[in-house]
Amino acid sequence: MNPSKRAAANEPLIRNISDTARWIAACRAQETERPEALFRDPFARRLAGERGEAIARQMAGPGGDWSQPLRTVLFDRAILAAIQAGADTVLNLAAGFDTRPYRMPLAKPLHWVEVDLPELLAEKEETLRGEEPACRLERVRLDLGDAAGRRALFARVGASARNALIISEGLLVYLAPADVVSLARDLASVPSFQTWVLDMMSPGLMKMLMKSWAGRFEGSGSRLQFAPAEGPEFFEPLGWKPADVRGLLKAAGRAGRLPFFLKLVSLLPESTGKQGERPWGGVCVFRRAA
Questions:
Q1: Is the pTM of this model over 0.85?
Q2: Which of 21, 44, 110, 259 could lock onto 29 through a cystine, CB 3.0 to 4.6 A?
Q3: How far apart are CA 244 and CA 242, in angstroms?
């Protein structure tokens, strides 16, 4: 084996946070290429690259990776609903390789702000060079762990918005609970930040994933941390009230995307509160508390 191949073989599956963006892009590419695709992302395969495809193959469970496409679908629906209800600004935290400004039916006046690490956004810009977004797109190179930097950004974006939508797809699960609290309070302190769409999981699901994915995040600087026992109610003391909660399993069942062994479970009533040891993951829409 030559030295370069030996080094690649010894690398962790996910080397850094940018690799998680490649992984999710590969999941969107796989969905796009299905004959009965729930959405189309013509840029996903390009952004995922060979590494993203390799990660997606190894991360998929025995029933295939049905949860990532359904998460995308639920976010898409929540975003369009918020825009139709009057949102004039979208603030996408940890935007990764998200391509919604390019692939969704958005109006030119909409101000879409993507925030992520400088090197990740630089790679994304280079890959999408020459493509035209459907709305007014701004990219902000910022580590969201920089509290002073993010508060300055929130103040600037909030001052120019009348009704802003915040999205944080795939972000909070990698943060410590105290960091989620700080972020939620910072967002709630801006009057024009009206709606927040996020995904979250139960302690039961996090334990299951940590066992299934054991060793795959080692050395990446990323690990699963946030899975509050309170469920969506965790955010109520922080200025955010749950308005709509959608479980991924239920959504996948309705879309006909579940493996046989999960179909019966998806017929159970939707659960929107505390989940405890139940392996639950979902997409939640929050409104700022009055």
A1: yes
A2: 44
A3: 6
